[in-house]
Design goal:
- With 130 residues, the chain is an alpha+beta fold.
- The chain has one domain: 2,3-Dihydroxybiphenyl 1,2-Dioxygenase, domain 1, CATH 3.10.180.
- The protein contains 2 helices and 9 strands; from the N terminus they run E-H-E-E-E-E-H-E-E-E-E.
- Strands 5, 6, 7, 8 and 9 form a 5-stranded mixed beta sheet that branches.
- Helix 1 runs antiparallel to helix 2.
């Protein structure tokens, strides 16, 4: 592991929370911490994490991040990649590459790409052959 956590600012904080909560649910990722302005004046953010409960991915309410970023989330299997893609599209994301093999990365790279409502490239990937 080379990163402890990552985050970026969004213009529509509540909309982003709704999108990411829906899109990441199939991957077992949910909000595990939220910082309110009362606790940290001028700052509002939420941290998403998996089963361990550590917030690894953060959204902040400071305004739009430009240029857009690319964030990739690990999926346990290919079915989870497909479920992520369907959930993200249903939550308002736009297709940026449907689930499938990306052999130019490696033979078992199975990923799906969605643009979030603010245009960030969000991906889920599974590296195993199942």
């Amino acid at each position: 592991m080379i990163l402890d956590h990552i985050g970026f600012a969004v213009e529509d904080y509540e909309g982003a929370k709704a999108f990411y909560s829906a899109a990441l649910k199939p991957l077992g990722i949910s909000i595990v911490m939220e910082v309110q302005q009362e606790e940290h004046p001028g700052y509002r953010a939420c941290g998403y994490g998996g089963p361990g409960g550590k917030p690894d991915f953060w959204l902040g309410a400071e305004g739009r991040t430009t240029p857009h970023v690319h964030v990739c989330f690990a999926a346990e299997n290919r079915a989870a990649v497909e479920a992520f893609y369907k959930a993200a599209i249903a939550a308002g994301g736009r297709d940026n590459g449907p689930p499938g093999i990306r052999a130019h990365y490696h033979p078992n790279y199975y990923g799906a790409f969605v643009l979030d409502p603010e245009g960030h490239n969000i991906e889920a990937v599974c590296h195993t052959p199942e």
